[in-house]
C-alpha cells in the first residue's frame, strides 16, 4: 500500500509546514485590488510551472469581490489557461463547511436539535459506542464526537451506482473511540455522518440538498457534490487523476470554481445573505461562527465546521482542503474580509504555500501592532515527568486494520516531548521531523512555542484520560494526542517487526538448505516424530508471517495512492487470514520449546537458534493483536 495510504488531509504534514513560516511583512498595506494582485504575484508566480500547475484565488470584503485571479494552465497539455469563472477544482475538506451550513439551516427551521442524540433522526443507525454519552450533531460539526475517521472502503468503481450514505454506514457502522464531547479529533467520517442526518431530516440525498438549498440561492452554478463529477463540469476541471466516485462525498468530494466560492464567502461576511437571498439568518450565522469547543480558554478552538485561528491578532475562521487539489478558505468577520485559494499540483510541494499565504495575508493587510509578546515564564516550576514521552495522533483509528496501515506502516510517525534539563525547557518534536520546538510555560499545564511566529499552543492533561495532549497550530487547526509507551511507538515497532521477519526468513532459508543438502536432511528430518513436529510448527508460523507481509508489500506496489482505493482491496481482506492463522499456529510453540530443551533435541547451537525463532513468534502474537491484524477488523 502506498505512502500516505489512507491520508486525505495529513494534519501532521501541515503541522510541519507551519514550522517553516517565513518572516514578517513590514508595515500595513491598504486592501486594494492593485496590492492584492501584487501579493498574489509575490507568493504564487514563482511556483507556477514548477510544483504548481495552476492556482486560482478570490478576495472579498464588505463591498464584494476585490480580486479574482488565476495563474498557470488548467490543462498544461492542451495549453488551456486557468480561469476564475470557468476552471473547476476539487475543494477537498472545504466541502465540510457546506455540511455545517446545511445543518444550521435545518436548526434554524426547528427541524434539528444540534445537541440531541443523532439516533433520534436516524433511528436505524448502528453506532459502536461503549460510552454512556450520546453522539450529537454539534459534536460531529466540531469534530468532538469521538467517531473514528475511516478511509478504507470509501470509494467504488465508476460503473456502479453510487452507494448511499445509509448503505455505507450500514456496512461500516461508525465507531466511537473517545468519550463524546471530550476532545477535538478530526474525522471526515463524523462529518459525513452529520450529512446523513441532514438527509434523514430533509428526505433528500445530500448532494441534492446542497443543490436545492445552498447552490441555487447562492447562484453557485458550477459547483457539485455529485459522484462522479458531471461531464459538463468535468471538462473544465483543472488537471488531475480521474478519481473514482467517493461514497463519503460530503467529507471532501465537492467541486467548484473560485467565482462560485466568492458567493459563499460573501454570504458568510454579509449576515448569511447573497443578494436578495438569505441562506441563514444573521443570528444563526453568528451561532455557526462561534467557538463551541476549546481545550483551554487561551487556545483557539472549533466553531460549527470552521477552525479558529489568531493570525497577527485577527480572529479568523478557516479550513483547508486536499483531494488531488489543495485549498484554503479564511474569513475575518471583524475585518469583513476573506479569501479562497485553490491549486492543482504537478509535483511535490515543499513550500507550505497554503499556510504562508494565509499568515502573510493578515500580516500584510491587517497587522495588529502593540500585541504583547508571549509571557516568557519558563522559570515557573512545573513537573515535566508526566509530560515527557511518545504521543500518537488520535486521528489514527483504533478499531480497524487502518491502525496498522496508518499508525505503523505508512504514517508520519509519532510525536515526542522531551525536557532539556540544562535550560529547563520542555521541547516538542513533531512527527517525521528533526525540528525541535521550545515551549514556554504559560500557566498550569499550558505551554506555547518560544517563537510566537510558530503559533503553536499546547496543553497537557494528567488526569486519567485517553487524551493527554492538545495542540493548536494557527491556521492548521487543532489536534489531540494520546500518550503511548515507547515500545509501541512507530520506530521501535518497525524495527521489531523487521527483526522478526528477518528471523523467520532466515529460518525458512535454513529449512530449504536442509532439505536440499542430504547430510542436513538426514540430521534434521529423519529423526523421531517428536523432533520433526517442532520444526514444521515453526516453519508454518514463519511462512504465514512472511506471506502476510509479502502480500502487504505487493499491495503497496499495485495501488499507487490510497485516495484511489476502490472499496476495500481484496488483498486487505486476505491479509488478516495470514496473520490470524499465524497466531493460532504459534500456540503449540511453548510446548515444543519445552520439549526441545528437556529432550536435548539437536545440538546446543541449533536449540538456541530454534529458541530465538520461537521467541520471535511469541513477540509476533501481541504485535498482531495490537495492530488489529488478528481477526477480521475491517
Could you characterize what this model shows?
By secondary structure, the protein is an alpha+beta fold. The protein is 36% helix and 18% strand. The chain has an eight-stranded antiparallel β-barrel with strand order 14-15-16-17-18-19-20-21. A seven-stranded antiparallel beta sheet has the order 3-2-1-13-12-11-10, sandwiched between helices. The chain has a two-stranded antiparallel ribbon with strand order 4-7. Helix 13 crosses helix 15 (529-558) and helix 13 crosses helix 18 (604-626). The longest helix has 30 residues, at 529-558. It is globular, with a radius of gyration of 27 Å.
Q: Topology, pairings included?
A:
Elements: H1 11-18, H2 33-44, E1 52-61, E2 64-75, E3 80-81, E4 89-90, H3 96-108, E5 128-129, H4 137-141, H5 165-171, E6 175-176, H6 188-202, H7 206-218, H8 231-234, E7 255-256, H9 258-269, E8 273-274, E9 277-278, H10 282-288, E10 307-311, E11 314-323, E12 325-332, E13 337-345, H11 353-365, E14 389-393, H12 402-409, E15 415-420, E16 425-429, E17 437-443, E18 446-449, E19 456-460, E20 469-473, E21 478-484, H13 490-516, H14 518-525, H15 529-558, H16 570-585, H17 589-598, H18 604-626
Parallel strand pairs: 5-6
Antiparallel strand pairs: 1-2, 1-13, 2-3, 4-7, 8-9, 10-11, 11-12, 12-13, 14-15, 14-21, 15-16, 16-17, 17-18, 18-19, 19-20, 20-21
Helix pairs in contact: 3-6, 3-7, 13-14, 13-15, 13-18, 15-16, 15-17, 15-18, 16-18, 17-18
Amino acid at each position: 500500500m502506498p505512502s500516505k495510504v489512507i491520508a486525505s488531509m495529513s494534519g501532521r504534514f501541515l503541522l510541519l509546514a507551519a514550522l517553516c513560516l517565513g518572516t514578517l511583512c513590514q508595515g500595513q498595506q491598504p486592501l486594494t485590488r492593485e496590492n492584492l494582485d501584487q501579493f498574489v504575484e509575490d507568493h504564487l508566480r514563482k511556483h507556477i510551472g514548477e510544483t504548481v500547475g495552476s492556482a486560482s484565488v478570490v478576495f472579498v470584503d464588505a463591498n464584494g469581490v476585490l480580486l479574482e485571479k488565476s495563474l498557470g494552465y488548467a490543462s498544461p497539455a492542451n495549453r488551456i489557461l486557468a480561469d476564475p469563472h470557468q476552471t473547476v477544482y476539487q475543494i477537498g475538506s472545504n466541502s465540510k463547511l457546506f455540511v455545517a451550513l446545511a445543518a444550521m439551516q435545518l436548526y434554524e427551521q426547528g427541524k434539528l436539535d444540534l445537541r440531541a442524540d443523532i439516533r433520534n433522526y436516524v433511528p436505524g443507525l448502528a453506532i459502536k459506542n461503549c460510552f454512556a454519552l450520546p453522539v450529537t450533531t454539534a459534536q460531529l460539526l466540531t469534530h468532538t464526537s469521538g467517531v473514528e475517521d475511516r478511509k478504507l472502503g470509501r470509494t467504488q468503481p465508476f460503473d456502479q451506482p453510487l452507494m448511499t450514505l445509509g448503505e455505507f454506514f450500514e456496512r461500516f457502522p461508525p465507531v466511537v473511540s473517545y468519550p463524546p464531547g471530550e476532545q477535538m479529533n478530526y474525522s471526515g467520517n463524523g462529518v459525513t455522518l452529520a450529512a446523513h442526518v441532514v438527509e434523514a431530516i430533509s428526505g433528500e440525498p445530500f448532494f441534492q440538498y446542497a443543490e436545492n438549498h445552498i447552490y441555487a440561492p447562492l447562484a453557485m452554478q458550477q459547483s457539485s457534490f455529485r459522484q462522479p463529477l458531471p461531464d459538463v463540469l468535468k471538462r473544465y476541471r483543472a488537471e488531475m487523476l480521474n478519481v473514482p466516485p467517493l461514497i463519503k462525498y460530503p467529507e471532501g468530494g465537492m467541486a467548484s470554481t473560485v467565482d462560485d466560492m466568492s458567493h459563499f464567502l460573501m454570504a458568510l461576511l454579509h449576515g448569511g445573505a447573497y443578494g436578495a437571498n438569505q441562506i441563514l439568518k444573521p443570528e444563526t450565522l453568528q451561532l455557526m461562527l462561534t467557538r463551541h469547543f476549546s481545550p483551554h480558554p487561551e487556545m483557539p478552538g472549533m466553531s460549527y465546521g470552521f477552525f479558529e485561528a489568531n493570525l497577527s491578532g485577527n480572529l479568523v475562521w478557516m479550513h483547508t482542503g486536499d483531494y488531488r487539489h489543495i485549498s484554503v478558505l479564511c474569513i475575518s468577520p471583524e475585518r469583513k474580509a476573506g479569501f479562497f485559494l485553490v491549486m492543482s499540483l504537478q509535483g511535490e510541494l515543499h513550500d507550505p504555500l497554503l499556510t504562508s499565504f494565509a499568515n502573510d495575508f493578515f500580516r500584510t493587510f491587517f497587522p495588529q501592532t502593540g500585541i504583547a509578546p508571549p509571557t516568557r515564564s519558563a522559570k515557573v516550576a512545573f513537573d515535566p515527568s508526566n509530560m515527557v514521552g511518545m504521543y500518537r495522533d488520535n486521528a489514527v483509528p483504533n478499531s480497524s486494520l487502518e491502525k496498522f496501515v496508518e499508525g505503523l506502516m505508512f504514517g508520519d510517525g509519532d510525536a515526542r516531548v522531551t525536557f532539556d534539563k540544562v535550560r529547563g525547557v520542555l521541547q516538542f518534536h513533531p512527527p517525521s521531523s528533526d525540528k525541535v520546538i521550545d515551549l514556554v510555560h504559560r500557566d498550569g499545564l499550558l505551554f506555547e512555542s518560544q517563537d510566537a511566529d510558530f503559533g503553536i499552543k499546547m496543553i497537557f492533561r494528567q488526569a486519567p484520560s485517553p487524551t493527554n495532549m492538545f495542540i493548536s497550530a494557527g491556521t492548521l487547526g487543532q489536534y489531540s494526542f494520546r500518550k503511548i509507551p515507547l515500545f509501541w511507538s512507530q520506530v521501535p515497532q518497525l524495527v521489531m517487526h523487521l527483526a522478526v521477519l528477518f528471523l523467520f526468513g532466515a529460518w525458512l532459508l535454513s529449512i530449504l538448505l536442509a532439505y536440499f543438502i542430504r547430510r542436513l536432511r538426514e540430521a534434521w528430518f529423519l529423526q523421531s516424530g517428536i523432533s520433526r513436529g517442532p520444526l514444521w510448527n515453526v516453519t508454518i508460523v514463519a511462512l504465514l508471517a512472511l506471506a502476510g507481509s509479502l502480500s502487504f508489500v505487493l499491495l503497496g506496489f499495485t495501488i499507487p495512492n490510497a485516495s484511489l482505493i476502490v472499496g476495500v482491496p481484496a488483498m486487505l481482506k486476505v491479509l488478516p487470514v495470514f496473520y490470524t492463522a499465524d497466531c493460532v499456529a504459534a500456540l503449540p510453540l511453548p510446548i515444543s520449546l519445552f520439549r526441545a530443551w528437556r529432550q536435548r533435541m539437536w545440538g546446543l547451537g541449533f536449540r538456541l537458534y530454534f529458541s530465538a525463532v520461537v521467541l520471535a513468534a511469541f513477540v509476533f502474537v501481541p504485535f498482531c493483536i495490537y495492530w488489529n491484524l488478528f481477526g477480521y477488523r475491517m
